[in-house]
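Report of the visiting student (M.T.), summer placement. My assignment was to run the structure pipeline on a short list of targets and document each run. The first record concerns Competence protein ComEC.
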Amino acid sequence: MTKVVTVLGDTIEINGDRIQFDGINEQYKLRVTVIAKTQKQQQTWRQARCQQLALQLTGKWSKGSPQRNLHGFSYQDYLKNNGYSGTMFVKTLRKWEQETKATLWEKFSNLIRRQRGQLINHVEDRFPPVKASYLKALLFGFKDATFQGLSEGFQKTGILHLFSLSGMHLVFFFGLLDKGLRRLRLTAVESYLPLCGCLLVGGIIFGGSSSVLRACLFYFVRRTLKVLRLRLTEMDRFAVVLVMMLVIWPRVLLTTGGQLSLYLAWLILLLPTSGKPSQQLVQGGLLTFLPAPFLMYLFGEWSWTGGLLTLVCVPLFSGVLLPGFLLLLILSLVGMPLEGGGLVVIEEGLTGLGALLQKANFASIITGKPELWVVSFCLVASLLLLQRGKIRALILVCIVFPWLTASLPMDQMIAFVDVGQGDSIVLRQRWNQEVTVIDTGGRLGFAKEAWATGRVKDNAESTLIPFLKGEGIRRIDRLILTHGDSDHLGDVSAVLAHFPVTELVIGEGAQKHPNVARLLATITQKTKVRTVTAGSRLSTNFALEVLAPKKAGQGENEDSLVISARMGQRQFLFTGDLDQAGELALLKRYPKLTVDVLKAGHHGSRTASHPAFIATLQVQEAVLSCGLDNRFGHPHQEVLETLAENQVHCLRTDQMGMIYYRYVMGVIPVQPESVISQD
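After the run finished, the structure tokens were exported:
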């Protein structure tokens, strides 16, 4: 597919050789991805931030990936709600020399965007990477891959929003502007139009997010009412701003940022304000408790420190960091030298604070994701209780009730998580009494030059971990690693960073595999390491038993742990990457073995799923865990034909996303369900 777009230069994000930006024309807006082939191309894209650039792009267009796992993120919905028509992965591109159509507003906004892009480049040129990331986030709302890595501690403790440009930040910036206009002895009427123009420019310079839009509109409404000499209550002003936002951005209430920004702004208006420290402390506590059901619903966890830390940190940000960073930017623009102890103190202070908060595991509590009706009930009931001053009951309704309903599921579950090209299976007992995870998935690494190596999130951060948190799982009782391949254990470290693991299970001899050996060197004494062979019984829950390997191996595919499980009246078999020779050997040891649900070996590769193995097991359903459009061509056609010949129902994660089975005796039978409907 070929598209002609104007590049919005200030949206260009560079992460190693991966370049992403927004492209627009008169019909649509696209999120575009380009892979730079050389370091020179990478730098060319960086310079494009402050240029007028139109491109003809040829590549693969898509609507974006839908939600692929329970409690997972839908990139498709994100794009739609933020005004994108889709994404495009570019194969070839060339400059478009013909003049593109643009309205007067588009020409004006593109001019301001180029200035924003130039400022972003200036900050990157004049400041070290860490300081530059904080400056770009606080002054321009530009959060690159470096900032994502630095901000994990702030996110865990619930104060990441302080780095998002919002009311507090814009009050500071426009407050300075207002003082300047008053110094020029301009009346409210005389300064109205210049201020409105600055609001337009500022909305673009600051990134145009939902929180920026809300704050700019609040400021605009307040000044307009002052000029017109009209009086409205704060709630009436909020209503006017909400209507204006819906006109400008109709789907803003469907975005996570819009929901949080507007809900928290409404809560702040609702709560009584006071200058007394004791009253401010109460307000901070209420700002922690009241949004809790909503935050649980969105993220599956709740930061109980968020409101109080916000109360403590707001003076730091508004009184020190914002003025300090603005002064640094001005000094750099006029060419003054920036070397000095103050810069070092700021950088080390923010880095140290982020590292300290990242270790504060107590600050965030995994709660699970409550049902929408539970959240709605809690939010309404909490407001009624707030009006009556019943704080204890409010805490029970906001915290305890949604937490209990989300973290104590009534059903058993076996879930084949869609981790792309890899394996991860979760066996969850009712009420989360016991949780077993078989493999974690992980990316297969390929060497790149230093300039092309960007920050890449662990795959589990967007697949396995959100699912576990959404189910209210706070610990993993048993983590089983079938063998040493990266696509099975590559994300173990990421999982260990979020969940304590009681027992790590590996095959006898697997510790000889380099990947397993490196992993074991990082395991703490809190996690017991257990080596097993055929005949080992792992748990009475799900009747978990190891069927292979019979003897010690090297942690390779042929040494994969083969595990049987039972839920309800159905038998499951998980074979890792076991090859056909291993399958036939398994049949010799267990000639009467039959299976209802088989996790097909090696992601549907022709090296596994021997016809005799499939036929003898009398498989009813086979789950193939493989990545969408994977480079290996899994599942291979021979395997699909073998399954069809044996009348096996084929379930593929690349087509169906997560595949899961639930069981409640007498209520829910053990039948397959999937996240992506095949209707």
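The chain is about 45% helix and 20% strand. The mean pLDDT is 89. I thank the supervising group for their guidance throughout the placement.
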